[in-house]
Amino acid sequence: MGERTALRLGRVAGIEIRVDWSLLIIFSLISLSLGAGLFPAWHPDWSALLIWATAITAAVLFFGSVLLHELSHAVVGRANGIPIPRITLFMFGGMAHMEKEPPSWRAELYMAAIGPITSLVLGFLFLGLAKIVVGPVEIDPDNPQESFAALGPAVSLLIWLGPINIILGLFNLVPGFPLDGGRILRAALWGATGDLLTATRRASAVGQGFAWILMASGFLMILGLRVPIFGAGFINGLWIALIGWFLNNAAVVSYRQLLVHQWLEDVPVIRLMHTRFEPVSPQLSLQELVDDHVMPSGQRAFPVEERGRFIGMICLRDLPKRPRDAWRTTTVGDIMTPRHELVTLTPEQDAAAALDLFGKRDVNQLPVLKDGQVLGLVRREDILKWLSLHAGLPVTEGGRPASRPLG
Ligand SMILES: [Zn+2]
C-alpha cells in the first residue's frame, strides 16, 4: 500500500492517523448501499435528505469504530513495548503499523486480542443503546417492514452499527495470520514452541488457507452461486474475493518479512557497506559537486568533511532544494543535512537494524560512523542485493520494506 497516497488526519495519543485515498471506495460503497438500499427499505416515508444524511453518518461512525479498534491495538501494543507510530485507514479497514515484532508471545497475545474485544464491546454497546432508546426492538416476522419504519434515525444507525461491529470482531477472530485471530494463534504457537519463525510460518499457512476460501467463495458468488455464510451477489462476491486476495498477500509478505529480518540479523553492516566513496568539502559549489563528483563517480550520497572531520551528508535528493541557476553560488555546506540531524549506524549494528531505519526514516543510504569518522556507506539497494544473492529472494515492492501490518 502506497504510504504516499495517504492523507494525515492528525494525532491521537501520539499516534499518527492517516487515511488512504482507497478508503473513499469502501466509504462510497457503504454510503450507497445504505442510502440507496437498506435505509429506503426500512423507511419508505423518509425524505431523501434524511436518508442520505443517516447513511453518510453511519459510514463515518463505522470508520470511527474501525479507528477505535486500531487505537486499542496501538495503545495496548505500546504498553507492551511495541512502538506503533501510525494507523492507516484504507479500503480493507484499518491497519496499525508496528515498528518491530512483539518482544514476547504474551505482548502479541494482549495486543492482538484487544482489537476484536473492542469491536465486540462496541457492537453490544450500540445495541444496548438502541434498546435503552426504544426498548427491545421486536421485529414482527409477518410484517418486519412496519417494525423498522417506526425507528428514528439515531436508532436506525445504532441497529446497523451494532451488528456490523460484532461481525467485524468475529471476522477478525478467524485464526488466519495476519488477522487478529491469526496473531492470537501465532502467540499461542510461539508460547508453545518458543520459536517465532515456526509459529509465524504455521499461522501464515492457516491465513493463506482462509484467504483462498474467501477467494474461492467470492469467485463462486461472482458466477451467481449462493455460498453458505457469505450469501450471494456479484458485488459482495467481488468484495470477498478482493479481501481474500489482500489477506493472502499480507500472510505471504508478513512471513517473508520476518524471514528476511532473521537473516539480516546475522549480517553486520560493515559487511555490506561501501568503503570506496569520495568525501566532499562544504565550500564546494553545487555545480562543482555535480560536474566533478556526481557525474564521474556515479555516487549519489557524499559525506561532507571539513579538515578531516565529518560534518554532514549531501545527496542527490538535496539538489532540487535550490533552483538550477543558483547552483554556482550555493555551496554544499548551505544545503547539506548537518551531522546532528542525520541518522547514522555504528559498525556493531546489523543489516536488519539498517533496513528498519531505511523504512522508518525514508532514506536510501546511511553512513556508518566510528569515532566521528565515516567508515562506509550502506545503501538500501546493497541490502536487497545481499538478500537476492545469499537468500535467493526476489527483490520486491521497489525495494521498499513494508512495516508490519496489524489488522
Ligand atoms: Zn485488529
TrEMBL record:
Entry note: cofactor: Binds 1 zinc ion per subunit.
Membrane topology per record: Multi-pass membrane protein
InterPro entries linked: CBS_dom, CBS_dom_sf, Peptidase_M50, UCP006404_Pept_M50_CBS
Family listed: Belongs to the peptidase M50B family.
Gene Ontology molecular function terms on file: metal ion binding; metallopeptidase activity
Entry cofactors: Zn(2+)
Organism per entry: Methylocaldum marinum
Residues involved in Zn(2+) binding: 69, 73, 180
CBS domain: residues covered: 336-395
Main subcellular localisation: membrane
Protein name, per record: Zinc metalloprotease
Annotated transmembrane regions: 21-42, 48-68, 109-134, 154-174, 205-223, 229-247
GO cellular component, one term: plasma membrane
